[in-house]
Design goal:
6-stranded mixed sheet, alpha+beta
């Protein structure tokens, strides 16, 4: 076989050109129809996946080469402000309310919180029961991500305080930490909402949230150093 790009003679069945690296078209063994190899390159490697159907010919199985969708996306090093927001007293509230009423309250809280986080430039990465994990600085970084995280936390307290039946107005605890993390799932899964972050920062944010009093935002030292005079701490 011949590489269509550089015309180098290659052994039959070659997936890549040994000279220019171009992915080679693989023909269906049953009907001979040529299909361009659907290959993705990760760190210079390709995983052989058997039993790929001939798309345009007879429909019989053929062998192609591509990176499996179960391979995690490339990770990247980023500075993020990570926010944990947790609803206070949700267990006791669930005990007092009818399940449908509690579900409606919880859904309203999550929708409102998500709207506020996104309006502040944040990304809701996970819904953890009645808690929310949000990133500020991913996927797009801004100079004021840390300030926006704090401002968003204060807005959440105000907005959530107007939800729920009187006298059971909702309250939240919020922890925010800033630091360098690795963004990207170790294993790709359809069950994941957004890429995970690996590092001390999300763990610290979770601990700060647990220490916070109802309707307060607790931040770490790095976050405090990064914020500007426009935010009073």
């Amino acid at each position: 076989m011949e590489c269509p790009t550089c015309k180098t003679d290659l052994p039959d069945g070659s997936k890549f050109c040994s000279q220019c690296g171009t992915a080679q078209s693989l023909a269906c063994q049953a009907c001979g129809h040529g299909n361009a190899a659907s290959c993705q390159i990760l760190c210079g490697l390709a995983a052989p996946i058997p039993d790929v159907r001939c798309a345009d010919g007879c429909g019989r199985d053929r062998t192609s080469s591509f990176i499996s969708s179960t391979v995690a996306p490339l990770s990247e090093r980023r500075q993020l402000s990570v926010m944990f927001c947790d609803l206070v007293g949700s267990v006791s509230l669930a005990e007092r309310l009818d399940p449908e009423d509690f579900n409606a309250v919880l859904a309203t809280y999550l929708r409102q919180a998500t709207t506020i986080v996104e309006a502040g430039g944040g990304l809701v990465a996970r819904y953890l029961g009645d808690g929310i994990l949000a990133y500020f600085g991913y996927p797009v970084a801004h100079e004021d991500d840390t300030e926006q995280a704090i401002t968003t936390g204060l807005e959440l307290i105000k907005a959530v305080g107007e939800l729920g039946p009187a006298p059971d107005r909702l309250r939240v605890r919020i922890g925010i930490a800033t630091g360098t993390v690795i963004v990207g799932d170790l294993i790709h899964s359809g069950q994941m909402d957004q890429p995970s972050v690996v590092g001390e920062t999300p763990n610290l944010a979770a601990r700060l949230q647990a220490l916070a009093q109802p309707n307060t935002v607790v931040i770490d030292e790095r976050t405090r150093r990064l914020i500007r005079a426009s935010v009073r701490v």
